[in-house]
Amino acid sequence: MNEQRERRPRVAVVFGGRNSEHAVSLLGAGSVLSVIDRDKYDVVPVGIAQDGRWVLASGEQRYAIEATVDESGPALALPTGEASLVALSPGRIPEELGTVDVVFPVLHGPFGEDGTIQGLLEMAGVRYVGSGVLASSVGMDKEYMKAVLAAAGLPIGKYAVVRDRDWRLDRERVLKEVQGLGWPVFVKPARAGSSQGISRATATGELAEAIELARAHDPKVLVEAAVEGREIECAVLESLDDAPPVASVPGEVLIRDDHEFYDFTAKYTEGHIDLDVPARVPPEVTERLKSMAVRAFEALSCEGLARVDFFHTPDGGIVLNEINTMPGFTATSVAPQLWAAGGLPYPALVDRLIQLALRRSVGLR
């Protein structure tokens, strides 16, 4: 009994995944694994290969933007309802690795951030960091995210949805409808992140090419009217004491001159952006941004953490662009930097998220 009480909580850090953000996930996982207090937690690194197989990460695993999950470790299974990891080695009896108390899914994009792994963990009865099935799914699908945000009375920009069937069967009508947004427009996969597959179009010919580029990532495409304004981001964190969620200080993303917009290269290659924290806006704008960020978090029923992205327009208005339920999570990513600027350094942020997950009940809540 004493031994059970003294056991450290076991945290499985899960990374990789079956999508184009596989390598981005490895960057975040490497950062998380480097700061978790090993005296406080028993840590198990788990990689999801690009074909969907789960493996126990080896000591040779590289956590870099050009890396993939090292598949040399034992294959893993998470039996439904047992909250434990099992190692599966050819020709050997499955080996019980022990109960998993919390999964930290440092996963982005489809099959990771979209409610799928969250549903698996719910079925297995395992607590996890971040939002649940519904919030993760709605947050990943930009069409439904915008519908929920608009229903909550939050200001969003003009957009159009290009569905697979409509594009294949009635392309000219789709192009005509999208042109009603004006130029330029930004074309993006409806269910992807890290600015993958996004491009800017200024004419009909470019629009068709941009839609095809986005469709390489997702058959459903979102086209957004350009919003003139400064890009300002605000992070949100659930409270440990049942108090309302809290928002970080806002920060402005300043893109260097060699980028038309905040694309993948700008996000993940050093030296392409600056983050001005706190954002240089009037105090009343800061409070509006923080209030809207928390409202967006609650509108989607988010848990744990999120990052909310805004445009601050020249006339003083605010447009909510999107919410990310598992934002980039290296120590130098925007959300961790915003919290560090407010006095919560990266190691403490990681610990806070694990503690939030440990307090969570399993099942419906």
From TrEMBL:
PROSITE patterns: ATP_GRASP, DALA_DALA_LIGASE_1, DALA_DALA_LIGASE_2. Mg(2+) 1 binds at D309, E322. Mg(2+) 2 binds at E322, N324. One of its GO terms (biological process) is regulation of cell shape. Keywords: ATP-binding, Cell shape, Cell wall biogenesis/degradation, Cytoplasm, Ligase, Magnesium, Manganese, Metal-binding, Nucleotide-binding, Peptidoglycan synthesis. NCBIfam families: D_ala_D_alaTIGR, PRK01966.1-4. This is D-alanine--D-alanine ligase. It comes from Spongiactinospora rosea.
